[in-house]
Amino acid sequence: MSAAELNSEFEALQSQYQALAERNLALDLTRGKPGTEQVALSDALDGILEGDYTAANGTDVRNYGGIDGLAEAKALFSTVLGTPDNEIVIGGNSSLTLMYTVVDFALSVGLRGPESAWGNSDEVKFLCPVPGYDRHFAICEHLGIEMIPVPMDENGPLMDEVEKRVSADPAIKGIWCVPRFSNPTGCVYSDDTIERLAKLGNIAGDDFIVMYDNAYAVHTINAAAPALANLREYCVKHGTESSVFQFGSTSKVTFAGAGVAFMSSSAANLSAFKEHLGFQSIGPDKVNQLRHVKLLQSAAGIAAHMEKHAELLRPRFAAVLATLESELGGTGMGEWLSPEGGYFISFNTRPGLAREVVKLAADIGVALTPAGATYPYGNDPEDSNIRLAPSYPSLEDVQATAEAFVLCVKLASIRQALR
Amino acid sequence: MSAAELNSEFEALQSQYQALAERNLALDLTRGKPGTEQVALSDALDGILEGDYTAANGTDVRNYGGIDGLAEAKALFSTVLGTPDNEIVIGGNSSLTLMYTVVDFALSVGLRGPESAWGNSDEVKFLCPVPGYDRHFAICEHLGIEMIPVPMDENGPLMDEVEKRVSADPAIKGIWCVPRFSNPTGCVYSDDTIERLAKLGNIAGDDFIVMYDNAYAVHTINAAAPALANLREYCVKHGTESSVFQFGSTSKVTFAGAGVAFMSSSAANLSAFKEHLGFQSIGPDKVNQLRHVKLLQSAAGIAAHMEKHAELLRPRFAAVLATLESELGGTGMGEWLSPEGGYFISFNTRPGLAREVVKLAADIGVALTPAGATYPYGNDPEDSNIRLAPSYPSLEDVQATAEAFVLCVKLASIRQALR
């Protein structure tokens, strides 16, 4: 476009933006929060026990005990993580709590005794594939762990760089991963990436851990979505079972705030971890575990349930992707991926515009995840990545938000071109 | 008794003991665990929402959010702690988790910023009124906090000693309290004790806290049980609201393993604590909070519900107390108190016999709380205190256990006299 054309386009966009501002929008695409229809898919949970509070082995789930969960809950949720049902611990309603507790345990108490506590060293570092999940980064920052960003591509973190850094720096004690439908890019780690993650335990020290947050393990939107290789099988092959902690939950399967979280690692790690947990709790809520087993029943039951979620999510993702394609496709004003599952669309503006786009949107009542949130310390060096989370609003609001969003992207891009 | 009489009594007791041994008993009085009939009092919880998952303010309790709990849960449970409903945080299913998290927060992060973290000092100490609760002591031991035992009488901890120690040693950062129906003595702290606890905040440093575990706040067995003075009112009087954290739960009101925990402190403390919690969880299970509000409804509802518990507990406590009185009363072989509420009977053998009695009982299939468990580091200097927990077994088993117990006490006592 010529300067005159740019100016004229800019004015047209500005008047569209003014018109939107006058509509007093109140839209919110900030968090990966299931929609109301999605959580309602599990409304049968309350009352599903029909007065029978007895687990398969006779345990009264109402009473104390059971630090690691009911056997039937272990059997069910080990299918999600692809691990044996004797290598799983069931938690409360939050996998974030399990992750925090693992990192805190490794830091302060030591995975393999007091000598192994990361906190014995002055420096503790984590690799953080970017863009990534802000709550992972927040755990590190809160606990004083230095974060080193590592780029990702469509196969996951760039493993050459990961291996190089882990080999070179013994202060690196872990790496955060969201292997399937990664938050936010939606990529599914390739088989090669996963085998190389499993092999890190042989490159790094004995106290290095892969924090493998499989939050979207069964959260397929398109039936053709790629499967995820089995990390534990690679660990068995390479003898590194103790270098990995896997996490999952039903937060985006049943009730976001009242689901069941779970984790898996080697028997030795879990034994040490359960002892630590025992100082904090007499055990998680077994009644809710039993409710979940009754509702979901089996791996096939989970898959059928997730298909109902997919039906609700598909049009929302399609609305955003179609709007991005029709309004920004081929313009060079943005790049994005079409995720096959998960909760996010990761959008990259031209360098230097993410904060401006988020601000423009906020000023007309459209809340987006803060720019930079997908990077450690909130620092996106390119100021380019914006995470879109279309699950919660109504389809109508998702459409309206997508339209407002592309308008803000265009406005910022053309303003930049005019500078 | 003469030596001959002692010998003859000893032989009689030994043959009774042998007879019991042949009965292959499997009795357990170890933990303060509600009985099956007690937890069944709340069976209406599952299904009580009848499909309505909406809180009073319109919050969808199924979804994410609400780090500090539902307003109606705050209003209900603040009546248990006797605090304003804007000075309470609702947790998950375990008050132990809240307590651990508070101590860990004060130690590692700092109640009033990083400068205030106890861990900045080489020495961190807690006062532990004895006999006390083993899980409190375990938190300290796990987190490397040195424990100093302080004696108790029927009015609670000996406050002269508490004040003297707190004044003299700035490394003392806290004190554990179970103020009503104390675990295990059953005593109810006197008004004077509670006012002096409230005043500790003015004697100690800014970072000293009273860990006030009001686990049995509404757990009256006898209607004439003494009330507990309101700690917070004394704190307001003395300007020490930030020196106190109060805890409670419905573990012994509804379901032991699937209840709701809560805590109270000053607005400033709660604000800092909630920020810390936010790194670990997106919020506790609000569905279960709403269930509890529907079941219990009000302070009067809680009281009516607790009276049903009392009806189940009364005969169990009476059976133990009657057996102790009829078999050991006036013999000098033991001392105990008759609690008016709570879950325990605290029994003191003659010095040096607690371990022996617990071993004798274990050998004939009667499990008791390990001797020493009621003291920091498991070290009862008199080897005298045994905690009896009669809530869980059937009345018949409680009676059988009490009879086996007094036999073991007599056997150990007479063996000691013969040495």
Short descriptors:
globular; alpha/beta; Aspartate Aminotransferase, domain 1; 13 strands; Aminotransferase class I/II-fold pyridoxal phosphate-dependent enzyme (chains A, B); PyrdxlP-dep_Trfase (chains A, B); eight-stranded mixed sheet; 13 helices; PyrdxlP-dep_Trfase_small (chains A, B); 419 residues
Strand order of the largest sheet of chain A: 2-9-8-7-6-3-4-5
Please report the first level of CATH classification, the CATH class of the largest domain in chain A.
Alpha Beta
Largest interface, counted with CB-CB under 8 A?
Answer: A-B, 54 and 54 residues
Query: What is the helix fraction of residues of chain A, given as a range?
Result: 40-55%
Could you spell the SSE succession of chain A in H and E letters?
HEHHEHEHEEHEHEHEEHHHEEHEEH
What's the CATH superfamily of the largest domain in chain A, by name?
A: Type I PLP-dependent aspartate aminotransferase-like (Major domain)
Low-confidence stretches of chain A: none
How far apart, in Å, are the first and last alpha carbons of chain A?
A: 14 Å
What is the CA-based Rg of chain A, rounded?
A: 23 Å
Task: Explain what the structure shows.
Two copies of one chain form a homodimer. In chain A, helix 5 (134-142) links the parallel strand 3 and strand 4 (146-153). In chain A, helix 11 (299-328) packs across helix 13 (395-418). Chain A has 13 helices and 13 strands. Chain A has 419 residues and is of the alpha/beta class. The first copy, chain A, has helices at residues 3-22, 36-40, 71-81, 95-109, 134-142, 159-168, 191-203, 231-238, 267-277, 286-296, 299-328, 354-363, 395-418; strands at 27-28, 88-90, 125-130, 146-153, 156-157, 172-177, 209-213, 244-249, 261-264, 334-336, 345-349, 366-367, 385-388. The first copy, chain A, folds into two domains: 3-30 and 303-418, Aspartate Aminotransferase, domain 1 (Alpha-Beta Complex), CATH 3.90.1150; 56-297, Type I PLP-dependent aspartate aminotransferase-like (Major domain) (Aspartate Aminotransferase, domain 2, 3-Layer(aba) Sandwich). In chain A, the strands form three sheets. In chain A, strands 2-9-8-7-6-3-4-5 form an eight-stranded mixed β-sheet, with helices on both faces. At the A-B interface, helix 2, helix 4, helix 5 and helix 10 of A face helix 2, helix 4, helix 5 and helix 10 of B.
